[in-house]
Design brief:
The protein has a domain of 58 residues. The protein has 13 helices and 17 strands. The longest helix has 23 residues. The mean pLDDT is 92. The chain has a seven-stranded mixed β-sheet with strand order 4-3-2-5-10-17-16, with helices on both faces. The protein is α/β, with parallel strands linked by helices.
């Protein structure tokens, strides 16, 4: 059952629209308010993660995801020459579960790396500061972007399901022209979309940037453009002195993203583990996301001084880091198990399979970029061919 909208947030949006000279706001502004309004936004009030919430991430399934990432971070530390400190910057850490798993694994399995680590969390949502409770007593620093000096980080920036939550612009092709979708109010004060002139030429430039010819797409074609992702990538590249950037999210390369098969875009809303495509339901009570254009992230990174190390699927990335070996060991345990042990082993096998399922989490993209790293440096473990392939 889809919950009712937050009436106070609806009123805030109605006032925003009424105060606009054109009596409309961009869809990006609408999405920004719905998700990030300081008091009433979905994330500001505490996004509902996990089995009892609206959606689940890899770190909620098991600690294996964080343990595999810790193994990759330890190799990065070695490849960079064991820097002191070794800065690991997690952007958008949610409930802090992934940070707990990574730091625990480094402490228990890679103690030398753990002793060198400076774990930094860039977090903007006040409601997610429960991270500080979960990570109490651990050497973690919270900050915003302005508190990280340019070219100061030697180590790794990483994010997991962050970019998909950035506010996006919606655009539509009308009579061969690119038009922007805006949010306005009808006579009953209900939200509806209208199209108008582009709010910025950057929207048209974006398609040239990712080499998509709009003339090949049909009239009425609707999609999204994530300009904020470009600004974010520029910021990350500017803050990184030497090291890597790992971006894990669901999405496509541009030619797959802007294809005839996705003529209505990729916008999705998540509430109580159900998804639909209506962002005007359950306002403030549901997540709103759009798939990531990895081509745009790659090219923006290159424009800002980052090199592309590789792009792969999460399933292959985790298998290359040793998840396949864990599954093989689990198979041997299953052969010896009896009674309740069989049930436990089967449940764990289901969890591991979920992490690599190409139709689910395993199909997520993993983009690896670098800066100041020698071309002779060894390939990251996660980008090598998995042992079982």
């Amino acid at each position: 059952m889809i919950p009712n909208s937050n009436a106070t947030l609806v009123n805030v949006l109605q006032q925003e629209i009424a105060a606009s000279p054109s009596r409309r706001i961009s869809f990006a502004d609408y999405m920004e308010t719905v998700l990030y309004h300081p008091q009433y936004g979905y994330y500001s009030r505490g996004a509902k993660f996990g089995g009892g919430g609206d959606f689940i991430t890899s770190s909620h399934l098991s600690s294996d995801f964080g343990e595999m990432l810790a193994k990759q971070l330890e190799q990065i530390w070695q490849l960079l020459g064991n820097p002191q400190p070794f800065s690991v910057v997690e952007m958008g850490a949610g409930q802090g579960i992934l940070a707990v798993d990574i730091l625990r694994t480094l402490r228990e399995t890679f103690p030398r790396c753990f002793e060198s680590i400076e774990y930094v969390i860039v977090e903007t949502s006040p409601a997610l500061k429960l991270q500080q409770q979960r990570l109490k007593g651990v050497n973690v620093r919270w900050c915003n972007w302005s508190e990280i000096p340019d070219a100061s980080i030697e180590g790794c920036f990483f994010s997991n399901e962050l970019v998909d939550a950035f506010p996006v612009c919606r655009v539509t092709l009308e009579n061969g022209q690119l038009r922007e979708n805006y949010v306005t109010l009808d006579e009953a004060q209900q939200f509806r979309e209208v199209t108008g002139d582009l709010s910025t030429p950057e929207l048209r430039d974006y398609f040239q940037f990712v080499e998509i010819d709009l003339k090949t797409l049909p009239d009425g074609y609707q999609t999204e453009v994530n300009l904020e992702a470009l600004s974010w990538m520029e910021t990350v590249a500017r803050k990184l002195k030497r090291g890597y950037v790992l971006t894990i999210d669901y999405g496509y390369e541009a030619r797959q993203y802007y294809s005839h098969a996705r003529s209505s875009g990729t916008l999705q809303c998540y509430v109580r583990h159900h998804h639909h495509d209506d962002p005007y339901l359950a306002i403030g009570e549901q997540d709103i996301t759009a798939h990531v254009d990895f081509t745009a992230l790659q090219r923006q990174g290159e424009r800002c001084g980052l090199n592309v190390e590789g792009f792969t699927q999460q399933g292959l990335f985790l298998m290359a880091l040793g998840l396949g070996e864990r599954m093989a060991n689990l198979g041997r345990e299953n052969a010896k198990a009896t009674g309740r042990d069989i049930v436990a082993v089967m449940q764990r096998r289901e969890v591991l399979h979920a992490l690599i399922d190409p139709m689910g989490l395993g199909g997520f993209g993993v983009l690896v970029q670098s800066k100041g790293v020698s071309i002779d440096t060894a390939t990251l473990l996660g980008l090598t061919t998995p042992p079982m392939f």
